[in-house]
């Protein structure tokens, strides 16, 4: 990624500079050449008019001819070139070099000139330009001769070469600056990613209490906040898992130890009375039930995994389902004089998995009873609209601390460890409940205040969508 970033920065920084410098140089060369040709063409037009007005092609004895020829020679010197003047028969009447006068010029350019056609030929390799212009009598419209010029563009090429050398030098300097800036920027930009990689390595070594702090880029700060939040949740989950393993180990070991002690006591005695046998067997049964409760919750959690669970959907009367659950839990509530109230606003039929939903509702109501005060109350209400049904379970119990409300649905989490152990809780009930509701494409929320009670609200679609 670093190499790609630096390469892109270099290409973006260097290629436009190179392209622009070449464009400017070519533009200069073209415009300088065009300007020089335009200036020479203007001078040739003046020379042509002077030659015609002084009757050069009719007679070379005019007193002003020498002056005109002198001006032509000056023009040739100024432009570092050569000017030939031929008549309509291609005879050379004047040569600024004085070498070809009186001879006949046989060339394509000369023929084109006496035929009345302008011509231009640019030879970049030899660095010269050749121009041909016809001399036309304005009165008779007859071509009386032609002017053939050739001039050097070495001066333009020298300036072009100097500018190109300067451009190359500037390009190299800018290229070095761009490369340096690209490398520095790449290192600066990727520094947070290196820190992140280093943090990941430390996390893999078990140092999960270390936070990431990225400064400089808002996006990287957002990523660091998200990673820190994720890490915090992972750390909580790991702490809960370790605590759960410790608790489950203790909970599983305690009943087994008790059963072993009770069994050894019976085996070590002879002629044990039936009453004592019965008392010990009752205790052993209670320990077995306690062990079974833990194992059942663990198995339920595995089955409730929403990614692996299989839904057995059927149209169920939710009113009757809630009433059955309340009837089953009524004896538990009666032991502590807790009032169970069910309020149904309308009959509700919904497509649900009866076993899973029953387990979820049972957990909510049973928790409302367990974590309540003696002579308290639990109110269960059921309502529906055209799309969802709504179940509310409210109690007058001990409540849930505000800082723990975001964690109560996590696996293995228990608000009060000692109280959960006394009530036989394993920290899995609400996690099972939440999974069951999510599997129905529903939602669950909690509202609670310590020592004032807790309210769980559940929303589930009337029609199951796979």
TrEMBL record:
Top-rank taxon, per record: Bacteria
Any Pfam family: HisKA
Domain Histidine kinase: 247-464
One biological process term in Gene Ontology: cellular response to phosphate starvation
GO MF entries: phosphoprotein phosphatase activity; phosphorelay sensor kinase activity
UniProt keyword annotations, A-Z: Kinase, Membrane, Phosphoprotein, Transferase, Transmembrane, Transmembrane helix, Two-component regulatory system
Entry keyword annotation includes Transferase: yes
Any one GO CC term of the record: plasma membrane
Coiled-coil intervals: none
EC number assigned by the record: 2.7.13.3
Reaction equation(s) it catalyzes: ATP + protein L-histidine = ADP + protein N-phospho-L-histidine
Enzyme class at the top of the EC tree: transferase
Localization of this protein: Membrane
Domain HAMP: residue ranges: 187-239
Transmembrane domains' residue ranges: 166-190
PANTHER family for the chain: PHOSPHATE REGULON SENSOR PROTEIN PHOR
Protein name: histidine kinase
């Amino acid at each position: 990624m670093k190499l790609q970033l630096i390469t892109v920065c270099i290409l973006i920084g260097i290629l436009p500079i190179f392209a622009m410098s070449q464009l400017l140089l070519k533009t200069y060369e073209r415009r300088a050449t065009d300007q020089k040709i335009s200036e020479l063409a203007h001078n040739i037009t003046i020379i042509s008019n002077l030659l015609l007005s002084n009757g050069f092609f009719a007679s070379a004895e005019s007193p002003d001819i020498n002056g005109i020829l002198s001006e032509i020679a000056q023009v040739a010197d100024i432009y570092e070139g050569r000017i030939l003047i031929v008549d309509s028969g291609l005879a050379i009447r004047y040569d600024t070099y004085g070498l070809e006068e009186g001879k006949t010029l046989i060339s394509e350019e000369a023929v084109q000139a006496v035929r009345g056609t302008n011509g231009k030929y640019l030879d970049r390799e030899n660095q010269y330009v050749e121009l041909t212009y016809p001399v036309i009598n304005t009165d008779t419209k007859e071509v009386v001769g032609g002017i053939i010029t050739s001039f050097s563009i070495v001066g333009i090429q020298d300036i072009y070469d100097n500018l190109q050398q300067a451009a190359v030098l500037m390009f190299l300097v800018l290229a070095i600056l761009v490369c340096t800036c690209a490398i520095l920027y790449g290192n600066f930009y990727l520094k947070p990613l290196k820190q992140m990689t280093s943090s990941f390595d430390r996390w893999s070594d078990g140092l999960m209490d270390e936070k990431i702090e990225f400064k400089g880029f808002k996006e990287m700060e957002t990523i660091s906040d998200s990673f820190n939040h994720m890490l915090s949740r992972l750390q909580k989950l790991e702490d809960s898992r370790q605590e759960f393993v410790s608790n489950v180990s203790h909970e599983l070991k305690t009943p087994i130890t008790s059963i072993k002690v009770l069994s050894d006591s019976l085996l070590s005695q002879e002629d044990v009375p039936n009453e004592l046998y019965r008392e010990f067997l009752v205790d052993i049964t209670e320990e077995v039930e306690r062990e079974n409760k833990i194992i059942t919750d663990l198995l339920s959690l595995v089955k409730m995994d929403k990614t692996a669970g299989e839904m057995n959907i059927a149209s169920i009367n939710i009113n009757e389902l809630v009433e059955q659950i309340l009837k089953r839990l009524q004896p538990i509530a009666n032991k502590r004089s807790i009032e169970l109230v069910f309020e149904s606003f309308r009959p509700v039929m919904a497509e649900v998995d009866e076993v899973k939903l029953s387990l979820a509702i049972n957990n909510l109501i049973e928790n409302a009873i367990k974590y309540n005060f003696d002579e308290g109350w639990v109110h269960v209400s059921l309502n529906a609209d055209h799309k969802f049904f709504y179940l509310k379970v409210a109690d007058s119990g001990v409540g849930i601390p505000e800082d723990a409300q975001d964690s109560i649905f996590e696996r293995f989490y228990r608000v009060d460890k000692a109280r959960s152990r006394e009530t036989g809780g394993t920290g899995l009930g609400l996690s099972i409940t939440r999974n069951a509701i999510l599997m129905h494409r529903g939602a669950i929320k909690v509202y609670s205040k310590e020592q004032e009670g807790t309210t769980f609200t559940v929303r589930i679609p009337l029609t199951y969508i796979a």
